[in-house]
Amino acid sequence: MSEARTAASAIAPAVGPATGNGLAQRNGRQPAATSALEPHVAALLELLGEDPTRPGLVRTPHRVAEALSWLTRGYRQDVAEVVGGAIFEEAHESMVLVRDIELYSLCEHHLLPFFGKAHIAYVPDGRIVGLSKLPRIVDVFARRLQVQERLTDQIADAIEEVLRPRGVGVVIEASHLCMMMRGVEKQNSRTVTSAMRGLFRDCPMTRDEFLRLVHE
Ligand SMILES: [Zn+2]
Q1: Which one of 39, 46, 86, 170 is separated from 152 by 20 to 30 angstroms, measured CA to CA?
Q2: Are residues 128 and 157 in the same domain?
């Protein structure tokens, strides 16, 4: 666990703004219309030795383009928009934890899925966020091309930015199809990353409580 934590925080400085526009927009590029992707998918099928005109594949470029667009819709979403007005003044001072948030993303190195669970906790500082918003914040960043380390940091940074809590902790446990189906073919390995901010970084008791609750 401590190794993963070091890995995640070591990447933090390169991450850039956590909320607001996605990486595509930050690079000055807008996602193309789905229909513009279709000929490229057809070309890919052909290059793989397939016949894109055979009946089983005729609609595949359309379906793949739609699927890819949907799986990367986080580029067109914004944390502030997703959270909306769901921030409430509240004197609650103890840890709030949402555990086992389902997560599906695409690795940016192979465009293959990685999937697993996110656990998010924060200690409020006068404000709480609607609980259903935390999974939605996860999706804003998971539905992009990602590496798990950056995804973990971006979720923590976004919650810190919208909520200004006393601390926030994020743990992600995920399986990567690029490891399971190809290369090393390690079917049972899971990658664990964590990002700790504020009290979760500075106070061992808070961090230990979080990690204990996650693994209960
Ligand atoms: Zn990969």
Answers
A1: 86
A2: yes
| 82 domain-assigned | no
Q: 15 CA distance to ligand 1 centroid (A)?
A: 18
Q: Are residues 186 and 103 in the same domain?
A: yes
Q: Which domain holds residue 45?
A: 34-71
Residues with catalytic function? 107-110, 148, 176, 178
- Residues above pLDDT 70, as percent of the chain: 86
Give, rounded to a whole angstrom, the gap between the first and last alpha carbons of the chain: 16
Q: Which two tokens stand for residue 20?
A: 């607001």
Asked whether residue 100 falls in the same domain as residue 170, the answer is: yes
Dihedral-angle region of residue 157 (phi above 0 means left; psi in -120 to 50 means alpha; beta otherwise): alpha
For residue 71, report the distance from its CA to the centre of ligand 1, in Å.
16
Predicted local confidence at residue 45, as pLDDT: 97
Structural tokens at position 181: 């189906």
* Distance between Cα 86 and ligand 1 center (Å): 35
Name the stretches of the chain with pLDDT < 70. Answer: 1-29, 184-185
